[in-house]
Amino acid sequence: MLTRREFVRMGCLAAAGRFVLPSGAALARAAPAGAAAAAAGAADKKKYNVLFIAVDDLNNALGCFGHPVVKSPHTDRLAARGVAFEHCYCQFPLCSPSRTSLFTGLRPDRTRVYDLKTHFRDTIPDVVTLPQVFRRNGYFAARVGKLYHYGVPSDIGTSGLDDAKSWDEVVNPRGRDKDEEGKVTNLHAAVSKGLGAALAWYESEGADDEYTDAKVAAETIRLMEAHKDKPFFLGCGFYRPHVPWIVPKKYFDLYPAPERIELPKDPPDDRSDIPAAALPVKQPNYGFSDLDCRKATRAYFASISYMDAQLGRVLDALDRLGLADRTIVVFWGDNGYHLGEHGLWQKMSLFEESARVPLIIAAPGAKARGRISPRIVETLDLYPTLTDLCGLAPPDGLAGASLRPLLDDPAAAWNRPAYTQLRRGAAQNAFMGYSVRTERWRYTEYDGGKQGAELYDHQRDPRELTNLANEPRYADAVAEMKRLLPAARGSPA
Ligand SMILES: [Ca+2]
Ligand SMILES: [Ca+2]
Questions:
Q1: Looking at 88, 90, 95, 236, which residue is catalytic?
Q2: Has this prediction a pTM greater than 0.70?
Q3: Per-residue model confidence as pLDDT tens digits over 69-102
Q4: What one-character-per-residue DSSP string does 183-211 give?
């Protein structure tokens, strides 16, 4: 008997022409132990290209993960070619700290980048980034759009907080959306929040190819065409679904009227067991009406579908150029995104919706196709994964692990937890929150527990509605998770 979610997931992958097993749990039972190790042993030393696709503020609302409403046919098509990780976590639910951790392979307490201003070349000047390793091995490395941090939408068209050592060439597209920022419906207009942090959208009238993400796709395709005959590491950084949600109207029209968009149905007392430090915004849903929340959700979904269509153009070009069988395609999000769970929006929480990000890896030569991995992985695992798949020597001290065994057997034995942290408060009053996620539990402590702790049982409570941290009968689980927590800080420098 399949759940609805599994059915949806099977349908979208089957539609893409791939056989898929119904769920990670079923895969775990079906996969013989040791298969992964044997497959991993057959290392292919061929030089693969890497197409590294970053998507800003994308959560797991995607067809390939069983979302009942969102239309993402091209992301689903990519998932059908490889392994989709439904439990991948960012190391810090904010653009710059997350991306810095991913590109250096180090945890935030090693990079010491916790905000949107600090550059890692000021804190760890000699670190060798992921694209740098490829450059040093003769690859052409280039970036189109947002790979390292930059402010969206303010820095669109600039290099933002880029790292010159990482790239041979950079392209900073700028599209019609930049010229239409004044036309948005802005729910935060009254509090004059910057447009990069406001819930704001516009059902634009332009053609698909006029917007920044279409130009990201076009420039990525141009670079693939120009460099198809030698190994490349090509970063393709999409901007949507980061706000402002300015995309063509036809993508809004893919979705039901706002009145029919569903909001999370949390119990009224949900917040009663949540420590204040866990909530980035105290007022539930910023005080916005249900209808406005539904409109915002619809605009987020429309932006996903627009980004997805641009991804489709890049994937088409990959096939047209005959690059698909020698290019590793990685598709990742830098942080999750709340759409009203616990009354929260956007990011900067340690709840599942903010800490979890989509990750899809389609690697030629890997054994699994169109499968979902239930294992717990981290975005900083991408660095050792790609050096492993491409046969390059990684620098010492990376915090992650190669996901290669899971690309051959998505349910292979895997016992690594995921860590996500954030910083609350300003200057002297700042403190950290650390969260550790295993397949069963999420445990979070703020200021070493002084500002609260949370334990959620994902076997019974995947929406994290009941905090068990103070329940005596869960003392053993709390103790076990506390034992894992110190590793969140990473190994000493
Ligand atoms: Ca982001
Ligand atoms: Ca609760």
A1: 95
A2: yes
A3: 999 999 999 999 999 999 999 999 999 999 999 9
A4: G-EETTGGGT--TTTS-EEEEE-S-GGGS
| Known catalytic membership, residue 149 | yes
| pLDDT tens sequence across 292-319 | 999 999 999 999 999 999 999 999 999 9
CA distances (Å), 313 to each of 76, 222, 418, in order?
14, 12, 33
Question: Where are the domains positioned within the chain?
Answer: 4-31+46-421
Amino acid (one-letter) located at 152 = V
List the structure tokens of 150. 């930059």
Ion ligand 2 neighbours, Cβ < 5 Å: 270, 273, 465
**Which CATH fold topology does 4-31+46-421 show?**
Alkaline Phosphatase, subunit A (3.40.720)
Amino acid at 81: R
User: In angstroms, what is the span from residue 236 Cα to ligand 1's centroid?
Assistant: 14
Q: Which of 36-45, 369-378, 420-429 has the highest mean pLDDT?
A: 369-378
The tens digit of pLDDT for each residue in 276-296 reads 999 999 999 999 999 999 999
Q: For position 46, what pLDDT does the model report? A: 58
Question: For residue 190, how far is its CA from the centre of ligand 2 (angstroms)?
Answer: 30
SS3 content of the chain, % helix, strand, coil (to 5): 40, 20, 45
Cα 314 to middle of ligand 2, angstroms: 42
Q: Give percent of the chain with pLDDT exceeding 70.
A: 90
